[in-house]
């Protein structure tokens, strides 16, 4: 540990704003300017940078030793305390929030990017370290290299595993692991390339390209099957790692490139790891993007004010950046740049005289081409292969891919019929329950919830539903029809068995989750039991928010890419996986309140480990407790003029819930009418009291009450017949319904208002005074009955 480090210092984070539609593809520009004591501003140059796609982070170091961390997921950036100039950076692949840095003292430090604390220092180099590389098949193997030596470290015990020393004239230009981690490849100053097998560290191949002189850089495709070799000569070679032979020799003068300082492939979404776009940083400090399959120039990145000193691509190709000679950093979204290149190319080839006609025709042609390619690629097997390789679907095509995977029918007529019903009363004032700053988002949320409630009355009474659908609204609100059908399909499939005990918790699902957790991590389940934490805390809270409370925006999108691409039980396994991955943090919590709060906030998460564990649970859970035993296979919405009925809920309990909501609504309107769940129930009660109207005009005695009850038993068959025609919930609900009618009436009536209020007051006094005789109580009850009769009759008249 650094003795000068003040661990009490807190790192302040600041907001960053990324351009959503940049004209030149630059989504963010970085520059570090400080003001001196004399008032003059001084620009500090950035020297190195590295991406971490798994956490959507970027680390940039400047010449004086400041490290800036940019979090693209949370749109925050912060600075780590100055620790001297750095020569190389790399994120630790399987340790969250850990950055490996090489400083000018030839040491390697492991730094926590949240606190700036140094957890480990490795020493052993005799020259400035320029290269850091990790093996994909052995995460604890770190390769560090200077110009004169390379060291392979075993990080489980922090020892040197292998050391490579060079001699004068054969110094290391570049050294790295292949993407598979099977080989270690180095490019030397004497224009040779050496290949070692990683597991044995024995040399297996030496490549001496006769056409190339002054070798500078090598790069691998994402699948590791091809290697690009370039240098200060005008030739670039594409080399096969399978056959150990050259695949292509490219003359760079065709693109006015006199030599290459650096090469790097830009992975694309649908290229299957066989990358076609190669970025070349030329000797005149310009970046050329070349399609090596068609041998055509795609795009040129240059700046009038400054040359480009370094060119860095993120591992999945989502971003790339250019460090300028003036010290600034320009960060690009790769898809934006390639789209810009296509548009620019079309503009160049269109004749000026016929531009209006030709542009529309070309645009139409391009649209058909894109749609044709997308239909070809929309096969679920191909999409899943892409997902497993890249970890997520591209943001640009995510809505199209989700639509394909969920097989949404695009029922415009059926959706219009739901829209025409208007805003559902349950969600009319939803803005009072949630703070939503965007009026458009609020409008889309109301519309979606209303359509769901009109489709099925169940969705009008579920308290958790707005929180569940809100993240889908944020992602798909540009296409309301797709938004509704996606959410409806998810409710049909991923939410099976959620509503069988509604409005009570889904006991079957929670039992399944608890059984899976018991099989795979009994210790964690015991910890929950010791603290009295049930599955309603560690599972239901996550499900009801669709993971949106515990994951960042980018993490949520990636998870749902996988949820939608797999069987419906995948989301249940994801809940168990989240708990197991967070086991270390959860076991440190010792109170019920701490654990409850844990599942209501975002916590640091290794996305790759989380998804890997989810797939492991999906494949390794015993068949007798596996969710697929209880959950049906995927079912899409029917195509037609209406959507199929949603029936996965108990109607009795939902009617009870609706009755309670009706009671609350009536109270808010100034009424104390009973919990009427249907018109048939209301009609039956009105008929019952109409029957007694003629007999209750005189003062009622105790015998009269007894006669009324006897008469009601005599009419039992008649009531049962009416009950069969009506839509009753159950006997308990009906009893509760009749009982609630016997409460005092406080409705403002046009006639008999004062009489009703006096009757209510007398009834309340009679309930409190135990000394009042039975005759007086019967009289007051009779007066109450007449008031209720008038109230119900007036209510029925006003409704009709």
From TrEMBL:
Residues 754-778 are annotated as: Disordered. Pfam families: RabGAP-TBC, WD40. It comes from the Eukaryota. GO terms for biological process: cilium assembly. One of its GO terms (cellular component) is centriolar satellite. One of its GO terms (molecular function) is molecular adaptor activity. InterPro entries: Rab-GAP-TBC_dom, Rab-GAP_TBC_sf, TBC1_cilium_biogenesis, WD40/YVTN_repeat-like_dom_sf, WD40_repeat_dom_sf, WD40_rpt. Gene3D superfamilies: Ypt/Rab-GAP domain of gyp1p, domain 3, YVTN repeat-like/Quinoprotein amine dehydrogenase. WD repeats lie at residues 172-206. Residues 757-773 have a biased composition (Basic and acidic residues). Residues 392-567 form the Rab-GAP TBC domain. Its main location: cytoplasm. SUPFAM superfamilies: WD40 repeat-like (SSF50978), Ypt/Rab-GAP domain of gyp1p (SSF47923). Keywords: Cell projection, Cilium biogenesis/degradation, Coiled coil, Cytoplasm, Cytoskeleton, Repeat, WD repeat. It is found in: Cytoplasm, Cytoskeleton, Cilium basal body; Cytoplasm, Cytoskeleton, Microtubule organizing center, Centrosome, Centriolar satellite. Molecular adapter which is involved in cilium biogenesis. Part of a functional complex including OFD1 a centriolar protein involved in cilium assembly. Could regulate the cAMP-dependent phosphorylation of OFD1, and its subsequent ubiquitination by PJA2 which ultimately leads to its proteasomal degradation. This is TBC1 domain family member 31. It comes from Leptosia nina. The lineage of its organism: Eukaryota, Metazoa, Ecdysozoa, Arthropoda, Hexapoda.
């Amino acid at each position: 540990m650094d003795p000068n480090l003040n661990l009490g210092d807190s790192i302040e984070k600041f907001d960053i704003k990324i351009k959503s539609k940049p004209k030149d593809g630059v989504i963010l520009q970085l520059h570090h300017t400080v003001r001196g004591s004399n008032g003059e501003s001084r620009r500090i140059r950035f020297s190195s940078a590295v991406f971490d796609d798994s956490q959507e982070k970027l680390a940039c170091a400047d010449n004086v030793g400041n490290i800036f961390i940019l979090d693209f997921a949370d749109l925050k950036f912060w600075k780590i305390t100055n620790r001297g100039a750095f020569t190389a950076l790399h994120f630790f692949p399987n340790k969250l929030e850990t950055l490996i840095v090489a400083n000018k003292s030839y040491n390697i430090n492991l730094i926590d990017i949240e606190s700036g604390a140094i957890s480990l220092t490795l020493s052993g180099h005799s020259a400035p370290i320029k290269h850091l590389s990790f093996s994909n098949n052995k995460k604890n193997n770190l390769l560090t290299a200077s110009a004169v030596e390379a060291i392979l470290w075993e990080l489980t015990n922090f020892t040197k595993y292998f050391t490579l020393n060079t001699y004068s004239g054969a110094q290391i230009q570049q050294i790295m692991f292949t993407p598979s981690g099977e080989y270690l490849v180095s490019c030397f100053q004497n224009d040779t390339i050496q290949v070692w097998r990683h597991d044995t560290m024995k040399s297996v191949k030496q490549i001496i390209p006769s056409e190339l002189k002054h070798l500078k850089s090598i790069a691998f495709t994402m699948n590791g099957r091809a290697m690009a070799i370039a240098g200060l000569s005008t030739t670039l070679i594409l080399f096969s790692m399978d056959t150990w032979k050259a695949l292509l020799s490219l003359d760079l003068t065709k693109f006015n490139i006199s030599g290459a300082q650096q090469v790097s492939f830009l992975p694309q979404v649908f290229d299957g790891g066989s990358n076609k776009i190669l970025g070349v940083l030329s000797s005149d400090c310009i970046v050329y993007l070349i399609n090596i399959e068609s041998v055509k120039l795609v795009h040129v990145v240059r700046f009038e004010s400054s040359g480009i000193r370094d060119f860095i691509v993120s591992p999945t190709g989502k971003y790339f950046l250019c460090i300028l000679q003036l010290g600034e950093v320009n960060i690009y979204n790769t898809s934006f740049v390639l789209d810009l290149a296509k548009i620019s190319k079309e503009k160049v080839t269109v004749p000026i005289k016929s531009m209006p006609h030709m542009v529309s025709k070309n645009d139409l042609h391009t649209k058909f081409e894109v749609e044709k390619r997308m239909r070809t690629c929309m096969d679920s097997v191909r999409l899943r292969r892409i997902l497993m390789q890249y970890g997520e679907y591209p943001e640009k095509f995510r809505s199209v891919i989700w639509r394909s995977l969920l097989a949404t029918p695009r029922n415009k007529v059926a959706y219009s019929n739901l829209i025409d019903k208007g805003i559902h009363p349950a969600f009319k004032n939803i803005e009072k329950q949630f703070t939503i700053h965007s009026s458009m988002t609020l409008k889309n949320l109301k519309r979606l919830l209303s359509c769901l409630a009109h489709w099925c009355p169940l969705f009008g009474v579920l308290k958790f539903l707005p929180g569940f659908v809100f993240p889908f609204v944020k992602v798909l609100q540009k296409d309301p029809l797709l938004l509704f059908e996606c959410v409806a399909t998810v409710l049909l499939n991923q939410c099976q068995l959620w509503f069988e005990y509604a409005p009570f918790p889904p006991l079957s699902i929670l039992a399944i989750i608890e059984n899976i957790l018991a099989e795979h991590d009994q210790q964690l389940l015991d910890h929950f039991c010791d603290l009295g934490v049930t599955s309603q805390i560690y599972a239901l809270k996550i499900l009801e928010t669709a993971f949106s409370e515990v994951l960042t925006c980018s993490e949520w999108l990636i998870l749902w890419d996988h949820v939608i691409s797999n069987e419906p039980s995948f989301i249940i396994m994801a809940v168990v996986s989240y708990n197991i991955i967070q086991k270390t943090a959860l076991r440190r919590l010792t109170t019920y309140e701490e654990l409850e709060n844990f599942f209501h906030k975002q916590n640091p998460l290794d996305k790759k480990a989380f998804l890997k564990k989810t797939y492991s649970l999906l494949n390794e859970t015993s068949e007798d407790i596996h969710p697929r035993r209880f959950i049906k296979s995927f079912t899409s919405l029917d195509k037609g003029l209406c959507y199929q009925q949603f029936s996965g809920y108990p109607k009795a309990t939902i009617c009870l819930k609706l009755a309670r909501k009706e009671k609350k609504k009536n109270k808010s309107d100034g009424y104390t009418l009973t919990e009427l769940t249907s018109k048939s129930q209301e009609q039956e009660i009105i008929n019952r009291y109409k029957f007694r109207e003629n007999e209750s005009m005189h003062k009622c005695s105790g015998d009269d009450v007894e006669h009324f009850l006897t008469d009601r038993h005599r009419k039992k068959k008649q009531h049962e017949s009416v009950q069969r025609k009506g839509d009753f919930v159950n006997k308990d609900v009906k009893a509760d319904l009749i009982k609630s009618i016997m409460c005092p009436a406080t409705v403002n009536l046009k006639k008999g208002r004062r009489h009703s209020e006096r009757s209510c007051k007398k009834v309340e006094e009679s309930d409190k005074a135990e000394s009042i005789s039975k005759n007086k109580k019967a009289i007051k009850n009779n007066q109450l009955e007449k008031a209720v009769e008038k109230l119900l009759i007036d209510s029925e008249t006003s409704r009709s």
